[in-house]
Amino acid sequence: EKAVNLKKDLAEMQEWMTQAEEEYLEKDFEYKSPEELENAVEEMKRAKEDVLQKEVRVKILKDNIKMLAAKVPSSGQDLATELNVVLENYQLLCNRIRGKCHTLEEVWSCWIELLQYLDLETAWLNNLEERVQMTGNLPDKLDAVNDALESLESVLRHPADNRTQIRELGQTLIDGGILDDIISEKLEAFNARYEELSHLAVSRQIALEQQLQTMRETDHMLQVLQESLGDLDRQLTSYLTDRIDAFQMPQEAQ
């Protein structure tokens, strides 16, 4: 009777494993929204816990069959053969569910990481847009133009590492058919805004550099002229002080 019960337990365990495999491993999943992906991750975590909890039942079955084989070798031998099959299938099921759970967790982590990088770069783009707008109405002063140029250049020196991560993470998920529509839309919007603002910022940078150069040249010319006028003023003052008649001076002094 004990052998019959153990045989029944083995059959039930095998049936449960077949159902678990069909439910968790053979279904075709399409992750078209973050909610679907997150639900799949949580489901696989529960599946992993459920399968691992059966380890206790498997161990009890193994111990009982060993005890029976020790007492009744003839009955125990057949059960031991069935047990080995169940043990092998159970281990395979555990490994496959662990693997799928790990894969889905990695995919979810990849999605969250992509969102974080997009947030960082969007904040940078907002800052860049603000700096560009600030260059629109500058006072006609050299210091103001110089400060605006330095401020814009400091933002433009932003490293490209984050954009590289966005491209690689997005492509990895899209290649896997995961959230591909949503990610493609996000990347397209981000890249379009990045290109537009980058070109606008570089154009403003070039315009400010040219404006600054012109202002510096004008300042230099005014300085030279001012120095020349100062020299002339001092020379004429000395003539007046010495009461020298203008007609006695060179033509330029007259």
TrEMBL record:
Signal peptide: none
Keywords, in A-Z order: Coiled coil
Top-rank taxon: Eukaryota
Coiled coil residues, start to end: 3-64
Alphabetical list of InterPro entries matching this protein: Spectrin/alpha-actinin, Spectrin_repeat
Protein name, UniProt field: UTRO protein
Taxonomic lineage of the native organism: Eukaryota, Metazoa, Chordata, Craniata, Vertebrata
